[in-house]
User: Fold this.
Amino acid sequence: MVAPHNLRYFITAAERGSFRRAATALGTQESAVSRCIRDLEDKIGASLFIRSPGGVHLTLAGQRFLRRARHAMEQIEEGAREVRAIGGNASGHLTVGLFSSLASGFLSRLFDAYDDRHPGVHIDFVDASAREHSAAIEHFKTDIAFTIGRLNVGNCEAVQLWTEGLSVALPVAHPLAQKEQLSWADLAGEIFLVRPGGSGSEVRDYISRRLDGFDTRPTIRVQRVGRYSLLGLVAARRGVALVIQSETAISIPGVAYRPIAEERLPFFMIFSARNGNPAARVLISLARKMSRETA
Assistant:
């Protein structure tokens, strides 16, 4: 099968009459153009160009193939335009799995940009564990999920998009609130408040791993409340809670946030390449673009 980029390189070289000028137009190296053309000639079993020090000229086979290649590229571009149009359709719908808050950070910027470009797409957000998200994606119950850490996601794809620091939410009167940043040793023996199920189970496992080996073991208490109510319990001096950097934008009276030194968490986008939802494909492309721009 001939890949679209092979056709693009061939058409540009034919129009420019030179691999060097084609490389300049394509923003790549001349060797890349030459190698791509050679691979294309091997695939179709015919020479497409006559090479000379002054440039390249199409063979008879190359002239005939050029017409076909241009037509094929026109069809590909027309298909891409149709998909983009469908992606912006007012009847579009997405189900998105989350680990972190949308209050600030990468996800806040991502969905602000997506909503600006596709205001008619309805989005349902689901809070669950990464494993639950990946299972839902495999069964097309969820389109895309944004989770912490890369795991075995079966037939799904996982792409790292950004990293965030990790902080602790403390009562303002807590002695540790006097420090600018904390270590895990500081937190050994604390009472950690977590939510049940979903991302709460991952938080429990993370705390246990990080504090394993300390003489004083942490106490982990599951509270059947929402994210904001959990911070309210911290303010009421019931314990402390882990929060990621974007969640520190949540202002709760009586709560202070202190970063854990040298602790950063990778965030991944999980999706299935078999998912044909055009609105999802648009979001995936936008997330990748924004990740490259902020890297």
Remarks:
- The first strand starts at residue 49 and ends at 52.
- The chain has three domains: 4-87, 93-162+268-294, 164-263.
- Strands lie at 49-52, 55-58, 93-98, 122-127, 144-148, 157-171, 191-194, 219-222, 241-244, 255-271.
